[in-house]
Amino acid sequence: MNKKSDDVLLPLLTACAAKDEEAFRRLYDETHKRIFFFAHRIVGDRDMAEDVVAETYMAVWKSAGAFKGRSKVLTWIFGIARNLSMNALKKIRFDVSIDDCHQLSTDGGLNSKNHDRKEVISKGLLKVSAKHREVLDLVFYQGFNYNEIAAILNVPENTVKTRVFYAKKALHETLCKMGVEQNDL
Amino acid sequence: MTYSLDELKGMIPIYLNGRLTASETAAFEAGLRQHPELEAELKDFSAIKESYDVMADPPDIDSEALFARIQKGIHGVTKPVTDHREEGPFRPLMSFLRRIYHTPSLSWSMAGLQFAALLLVFLVIPRHAVFRTYSSTATSDTDKVHLNVVFDKEAKEIEIRTLLQKLGAVITSGPSAEGLYVLTVEKTTDIDALLTVFAEAATAWR
To answer: B51 and A125: CB-CB below 8 Å?
Structure first.
């Protein structure tokens, strides 16, 4: 995934702090799709993800002057989106549809012959908790390193490392419940 | 720099997303050759990463409509509705007071203090205190006009008599303990003119 550096984003955020709407539009253009995808993966609902994106950029506009540069601009925006997503998630119950699970578990187990294992893992990722899903998303889809993820989640770096491994374990357990054997993966 | 097996395991996700530095990558790959058990962990995470690689694109987003919504929101933030009641030099003071009095504990404290002050006033005032007003005991006489007058303390008797003769007024009552006299004049007397004379005489007030 294309990563925008602070060389591009920091001047835009600084201009936002001076209430430059053109810079704000450019900052939005550069980042909003990643934020939307991230929020959508957490809340699992398109409308709610759009709400999160809207609230995130309103918060960015309002708080741009408060950015202290302790993290990168992108991780700061992700951090805002993450908190808003988690708040939104409390309002809804997110799960994979029962039909999907039923189909997977009644096909006599999954293996590379009758299912694409990547697809199976994708479905399994939707079944793990939001906390585990978000950390895997941040590593493998958003391409952040531990330090950046720690800034987004506002936890120590070691906690991020531990959480990634717990997320992998949780995914395996979920896949087992879905009828996938370890050797099939 | 050498890394422990646990540290090398911790590097796997970041190795796969390509964010390790060149030296860390070299150390990890050397560790991979040295510790075959890393291979299994690497395989597990590789499977997860590959699932992301083929993951369906996120749903389409109407970027323009969403930005228009955000703009509407930020203008709500930057242009708050002005409260005209608070304009003027007292606005900071009023805001301060409102902030103070919106604190429930302080509000209750203030109410308690006010109650204590009222209680104190009630207890301190002598129970038999008498509030005395200037009044006369003269009976009403429908043919006459009665005037309550207190003469200046410095006024001499001769001056008072001269003034009363000039006005055609007669003392019907007084003086009371407060120095109040009740004068009586005929009803036909021009009261306004009489009051003017009193005011100019500077020896009495009504």
So the answer is: yes
